[in-house]
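I have been asked to look over a protein record a colleague put together. Thanks in advance; the entry in question is below.
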Amino acid sequence: MWGDLLNSVSPGVVATIVALSLGYHFFSRKKVGDEIKLPPCAPGNMIKHTKMMSGDKLPQFLLGLLCELQTSVFQLSIPMRPFSRVFMVGEAKTFRAVLMDSLSEKPPEIYSSFNNTNGMGIETIFTMNGAVWHAKRKAIAPAFSSNQVKRMATVANEKMKQWIQTKLNSTNVDASFDVTTEMTDIVLSAIVVTAFEYEMSAVEKAHFCHELELALIEFTLKSNPMREAVGWFISERRRAFAAGRNLMNFAKKMMDAYRKKGPTHEAYHGFKGSSIRRGKALEIIFFLIASHDTTSFSIAWILLELAKNLKEQRKLRESLGQLPSEALKRVINEGMRLHLVAAAGSVRTIGKDFMTDKNEVLPKGSIVFLLLILLLRNPDIFENPDKFDPSRWEEPTREMLDAFNPFSLGKQNCMGQSLAKAETLAIVPRICSQFELTVEDEGGVDYFLTLKPVGARLSARRL
C-alpha cells in the first residue's frame, strides 16, 4: 500500500513525507534515544522499507533481515504515523506480551483499508476495536460452537469424498491436480454448506474469488490518500467498489436461500449480532474472506510437503489407524510452521512500554508488527528452521510451544481456528490414506496478504 503511494504521488509529496520522517527520527532520538535502549534499525532507507513491506517479496525480505541483523526484533523506517516508531517483532515473549495486553489495539492505518472490500467502507469485526468489537464477537460466538466444529468435520469429509470420486477416481491412471486450486474449491464449499446449507456452483466460486481479488488488490495494495481522493475518476477503483457490492449481493443471496429453505441446524443464529440485513451480509463476507483462503492454502502446503517427503507421508499413513493420530498432529504443526500462510501475522498499536529479551524498549504508542514468519523460522527456537521435519514436535521445547501461535493470541485472535483445524484434520488424512502423493510440478510461491503455493501440481496414485 505505502509502496504504491511512493510510486504514484508527486515529488513534492514524497519530499514532505521524507521531511516528516527525518523530523520524527531527530526529535524522537532526542526524546528517548539517549535515555533507553531501542532495537536496532534495519539497513536501508524509508523508500526501500515501504516498498518491501508492500511487495510480494516481504517474507524473503524479513527472513533476510533476521539473518543479517542476528535479532528478531528491529525497527523499519515506514511513514505510518507522525512521531511513532515501527517495530518488527519475532520474539516469543514479546510477541505474546503485546497480543495479550489489554491496551494493545489494531491500528486503523493498517486495518481500515479492508473496510472497502464490502463496497461500502463500513467497519467489520475484523477492523474494529473497543466495546463495539467486543459486543459483535460475543454475538457471533455461537457460530463456532462445538456442534459447528463437528458439522464442519462431517461436511469437509463429504466434500473430500465427492472430490475424490470426481477428480481422482475418474481415470485408471494417476490423477494430476493443482493442489491450491482444488483445496480452495473444497474448503470454500465446506464453509458455505456448514454455515448456510448453500451449495455454490462452479461459476459462483469462480466469480466470488475473482471479485474478491479485485477488491483486495485495489483497497489493500493500491490504495493511498491521493487515489482515494480521485477514486471515481479511476476505472480500476470504480470496478473494485462494484466487486465489493457483488460480494455483498452474493452474501444476501445465500441468506435469502437459507431463510427460504428454513434452518435445520444452529449455524445461522451465530450471526444474530446484527439486526439489519446489511449487517448480517457484512459479517458473512468477512468470514468468507478470512477463512477460505488461509485454511485452503495451509492444507495445500501440507500436502505439497508430504508429496516432497515420501518417508514422512508413509509414516503418516501408517499412523492413521490409530485415533487420535499423533503423527497427523505433528505433520499439521510442521506444515503450518514452515509455511505460515498469515506470514505477516498481526499488527498492534501498543498502549504501554514493552521490554524485549535483550532489554530493548518498545515505547508506548509504537506500531508493532508481530511477524509469525520470524517467530516460526527463528533458528534460536527451531533447529534447521527451513526443513520440513514433523519429528521436531515429538518432544517440543518450551520455547517451541510458546512460539507456535499460528492463529494469533489474545482477545482478537482468530475466531475460526477451531473450524480451520476441523477442516484440516478431515481433509489431510482422507487423501493420504487412499493415495500416494508425488510432486509433478513444485510450482512457485506467491505472497499477497497470504503466502500460497502457485502452479504446484501433485500426482495421486491409488493405493
Observations:
- Confidence is low (pLDDT under 50) at residues 1-34, 267-275.
